[in-house]
Design the sequence.
């Protein structure tokens, strides 16, 4: 069969990346975003731009390799509830490489436990931090591909053979695209070392793996058929950036100045957050009941509320509370406590999620949006979507816990 093979160079069956489109849309969104959100969009722009530069570095290496192979760039797969966005799939004569590109700033160390540690210079100080293992990330991508391919097999025997030879045919590989990055994997186990390389080592790595493989070489036609079948699995509508972009659009469209927010109690009486805190400290017994498991019980309410040292008059059902005098009220205290408990729980959950996502609490939901929640008290996700500021993305991410808090 080798006598009839004419392919002597790499061919891109899919070269374009949706990252360019994403970057252009982010730039457009940035131009109309309020000042309070520009920083977040700029951060996303930086991440997307660095990712594109890294993938371009790998594309350059592949294009100039002189190796007969078919290359697919930016492939999105989905099966059931699992999805994967693969940077590169490279089909060679013997082995198919699933490549995860990482364009990281700083140096990377892989220790004996397989942990990834990044060190970088920030304002003259060296920062050392652990990062999520790109090997684990790419192996999950590979698992999604394996499930999809296995499901396409028609009978038990073909599925069994597919399982048996899958690890020989498909190789997971992480490529560090930043040429300035120093990779230190001295103490890493061999199976870890073999899965992480720098971009300038990529071509020699592909050649070496193929030369050591005992698999039969594929013909030009067989390589093309395999690559075409893999390309047919691509689902552009499931690209991960679409979810991020929709979320950013929702934030821009529903943005309100976090310094001009109000909270609504029963009877539609409006009071400022600082009023709640100051009045509460004088007249309301703090609720000691435990909150839902989804909320960090160690959070202190004093770290959640923005307490301002000012005198506030609060009017509820014609009863005035003056926080400067500390006068107490007996009627309506149950109403205040009920609403106060909800605000406490919502804010604790908001703070927890903002820390988990490394963002500002008002990005999760603003005080104005919390006001809308307290007014409408939704009981289902459908009702939650009708609350101003809660679109599909936000409801899917936070809806279950919010509804549980509101309807306990």
Sequence:
């Amino acid at each position: 069969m080798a006598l009839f093979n004419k392919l002597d160079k790499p061919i891109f069956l899919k070269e374009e990346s949706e990252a360019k489109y994403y970057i252009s849309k982010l730039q457009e969104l940035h131009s109309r975003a309020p000042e309070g959100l520009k920083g977040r969009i700029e951060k996303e722009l930086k991440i997307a731009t660095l990712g594109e530069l890294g993938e371009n570095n790998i594309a350059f290496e592949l294009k100039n390799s002189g190796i007969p192979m078919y290359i697919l760039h930016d492939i999105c797969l989905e099966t059931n509830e699992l999805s994967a966005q693969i940077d590169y799939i490279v089909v060679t004569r013997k082995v198919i490489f699933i490549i995860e590109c990482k364009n990281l700033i700083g140096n990377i160390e892989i220790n004996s436990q397989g942990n990834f540690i990044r060190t970088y210079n920030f304002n003259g100080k060296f920062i050392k931090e652990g990062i999520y293992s790109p090997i684990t990330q790419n192996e999950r991508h590979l698992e999604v591909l394996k499930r999809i391919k296995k499901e396409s097999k028609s009978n038990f025997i073909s599925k069994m053979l597919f399982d048996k030879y899958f690890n020989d045919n498909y190789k997971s590989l992480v490529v560090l695209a930043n040429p300035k990055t120093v990779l230190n994997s001295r103490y890493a186990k061999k199976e870890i070392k073999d899965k992480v390389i720098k971009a300038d080592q990529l071509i020699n790595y592909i050649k070496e793996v193929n030369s050591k493989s005992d698999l039969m070489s594929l013909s030009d036609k067989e390589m093309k058929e395999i690559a075409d079948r893999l390309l047919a699995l691509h689902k552009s509508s499931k690209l991960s950036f679409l979810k991020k972009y929709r979320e950013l659009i929702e934030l821009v469209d529903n943005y309100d100045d976090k310094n001009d927010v109000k909270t609504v109690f029963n009877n539609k009486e409006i009071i400022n957050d600082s009023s709640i805190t100051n009045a509460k400290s004088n007249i309301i017994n703090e609720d000691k009941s435990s909150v839902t498991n989804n909320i960090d019980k160690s959070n202190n309410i004093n770290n959640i509320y923005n307490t301002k040292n000012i005198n506030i008059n609060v009017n509820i059902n014609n009863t005035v509370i003056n926080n400067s005098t500390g006068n107490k009220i007996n009627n309506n205290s149950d109403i205040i406590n009920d609403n106060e408990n909800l605000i406490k729980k919502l804010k604790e959950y908001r703070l927890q999620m903002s820390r988990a996502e490394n963002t500002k609490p008002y990005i999760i939901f603003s005080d104005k949006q919390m006001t809308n929640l307290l007014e409408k008290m939704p009981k289902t996700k459908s009702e939650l979507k009708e609350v101003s500021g809660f679109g599909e993305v936000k409801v899917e991410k936070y809806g279950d816990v919010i509804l549980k808090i509101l309807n306990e």
